[in-house]
Amino acid sequence: MATKHIAQWVVNLQTVPSTTRIAALRSLYNYIGCAVGGSNHPAVSKAHNALSPFFGPATSSLLGHQKRSRTDAQHAALLNGIASHVHDYDDTHLATIIHPTGPIASALLAWAEYQGGVSGEELLVALTVGIEVSCKLGLAVWPTHYDVGWHITSTTGVIGAAVAVGKLMGLKELELSHALGIAAVQVIGLREMFGSDTKSFHPGRAASSGLLAAVMARGGYTSSESALEAKRGWANVVAGGGTPRLDELVATLGETWEIEANSFKPFPCGIVCHPAIDAAIRCHGEMQERRLSPAAVKSVKLRVHPLVVELTSKARPKDGLEAKFSVFHGCAVGLLYGRAGPAQYADDVVASQAVIAVRDRIEIVSDDSLAADEVYLALHHEDGTNLDQHIEHAIGSVKVPMTDVQLTEKFVDQVAPVLGDRGARTASTAAWSIGEAEDITQVMQILKAAEGAR
Amino acid sequence: MATKHIAQWVVNLQTVPSTTRIAALRSLYNYIGCAVGGSNHPAVSKAHNALSPFFGPATSSLLGHQKRSRTDAQHAALLNGIASHVHDYDDTHLATIIHPTGPIASALLAWAEYQGGVSGEELLVALTVGIEVSCKLGLAVWPTHYDVGWHITSTTGVIGAAVAVGKLMGLKELELSHALGIAAVQVIGLREMFGSDTKSFHPGRAASSGLLAAVMARGGYTSSESALEAKRGWANVVAGGGTPRLDELVATLGETWEIEANSFKPFPCGIVCHPAIDAAIRCHGEMQERRLSPAAVKSVKLRVHPLVVELTSKARPKDGLEAKFSVFHGCAVGLLYGRAGPAQYADDVVASQAVIAVRDRIEIVSDDSLAADEVYLALHHEDGTNLDQHIEHAIGSVKVPMTDVQLTEKFVDQVAPVLGDRGARTASTAAWSIGEAEDITQVMQILKAAEGAR
């Protein structure tokens, strides 16, 4: 029933509550910043160069790109999906650690430009549909699915992308269930890849594979009509030994809106170490007030949620990519510089003696009584001072969300190195107003016009 | 170690034993027949039409196609992969029920034509490499991986395709391990899809995704270097609750050759019901000798391996696709016509009253003391005669392999409806000699020349 129920819900949904629409716009806005900001990353260039011999008709924009700025919809979905995730700076549905927008928006924008005449309003509804479906599916198999080793962003994202594009296409109920099925057999993403280029491949491939599923279903390609709930269907196969709660979660579609619980990363690294970075930045402020040198930290003890140890305990990251999974690095730059933005994750910063010296004085202790957005930090300074911080809810968490102003700062911070300062401001204004666009191709044009600034 | 070991083995392999080479040629020959034979199936047309707006430069042949007979390598891999499996007539590595050649050969041929200058010998070595890796991986996670619901053909095929193409490309060891990793995160295929178009999508998508993995690794895209064996790597995540025997199986690479155990289907349907069809065809012969009408069968009792019940117990298939998973249909046409070729799986045959009348008089009983290629058939005729058959090893099994002559008959039987009788003979000769080709593009040309016959 879950497959049919989802297909019906997606087909029948006309509008979404205003709070949901706001959440969708913030999600899309944050996505655009991430995708443009990631567009000049070496992983994206490598993928672009390797795949360009296979590019089809250039209908769909590669966000942020100046040259060769369009390709076919499938490759655009793949490359924008990689770019959106490559700095680990995207959004997070905290209850599942899904980064929901990347796979879905990458597929949607690529298809919308191919199709033409898609309004911003339609885009936001389709994005919402995709995010709701992927997050409900994620909740249905959480936590065993993630525990066993699946990268839940892409395993659920491919299905979200398929239904979202199917919604834009106006697929009928049966076609939509076929799209769901074709997407469900492409289970993409393993946590083992965290720290390599392949991690960002996951949302990219989820985008292109979800798009492909919708395209094939539209062409009459058939699938099982109980792809999700069957004995050997998606949920049971990928549940990692747990009992999926498929019917229970699917029944909440349209009643609780997962997109409203979507959060945005203030720091470009694994979200579980954000509380520690938040605490470190506050300590930096306190040290400044007390005129204590951050370089003269004697020892730092972090009491952290167990996932921090599991996911981000790289004690000696060798470059920026590995540093994203090092709570030690994040905490060190927070203490030293009072910032942990993209600049603090550059390879040379990660390898600098100043950072390493502080990093090596940090230890972490797992405490399963803590919430995921909570941390205790105890710092001993060489001058004898002790500083303590307790972060109950880290910045960027559901309880302490980033404001629109903070999101705009983050956007400009990401986009300026690609499109220039002025281009970034123009792009930001265009992205905030995408919901009003009669044809989102107009917005893509504005983003392209801004490219001249590079 | 498994990932590194495989990469080393693949890179270092220069030649294969002559028995292995023969098995590779037979596998490739059978594949070409299946892919050409499946090329005019509606599932292939639907996929072709849906995806054609995204086609890139036309470098690679669509086997059997007359019009629009080339596309980009990725789409060629996908579409040929679908065609090769769509009649469920392909090869089988019986120890794992993997149909190994489809994903790998589809990726290889598509890439070889793109690259140019690939000899038949290189192609056969690369095919062998891919099949060895996918079958060893399949054995390492068998049977729990299959039991939980993965379609093992495509879950292992995507990795086999990546290493095979990587071998043709001449990737270095580290690049090859990256290709392995990028392939391993794309886990494609659920058994729930058996009976829908999506089943044949599995090997197609495994082909295009494996090719993509090799292409990206060649472009410097990185992955985990322990993608297969890591705690949250491929084997542990997809093992379905079992304990993978990865090191044990990988150590046998080059010592035992899985491709030599590859078998070829004499009937275009689920392999587990082949013993029953074999028995039914023998019964048909016996009835003819005794001048008994096959239409006047009173009852048939089949004692079968449990997988027959699990996989092929559709008692009332509604069309040819469903009939492939009906031991009842296969047995009925075997009894009635003494044949179970593609013609006996046409929709109108499946729906005919004559077939249904016999089909409804067949019952099956599961017997776990039987081997997978074994069956007992007990037939009661309306005239009072009782006939019994015990098939110890079905035709097409490892013990009773199809001869080259039988393979040729099967090839021509499949290819003639697409390329005409004369075209089928020409194609057969070309396919048998592919190992001697200096550039396999020549063979593709011959296959294309034959197309004029349609």
Would you kindly provide a written description of the structure presented here, covering whatever features stand out?
Two copies of one chain form a homodimer. With 454 residues, chain A is an alpha+beta fold. Helices cover 54% and strands 9% of the residues of chain A. Chain A contains 20 helices and nine strands. Chain A has helices at 2-12, 18-38, 42-51, 73-85, 101-115, 120-141, 144-148, 152-169, 173-184, 198-218, 234-238, 246-250, 274-289, 306-312, 320-323, 327-337, 347-350, 353-359, 404-432, 440-449, and strands spanning 60-61, 70-71, 91-93, 186-188, 262-264, 297-304, 362-366, 375-381, 386-391. Chain A has a four-stranded mixed beta sheet, with helices on one face. In chain A, α5 crosses α10 (198-218) and α8 (152-169) runs parallel beside α10. The longest helix of chain A is centred in the C-terminal third of the chain and has 29 residues, at 404-432. β4 (186-188) of chain A pairs antiparallel with β4 of chain B.
Oligomer: homodimer
The major sheet of chain A is characterized as: 4 strands, mixed
Structural class of chain A: alpha+beta
Can you list the strand order of the major beta sheet of chain A? 7-6-8-9
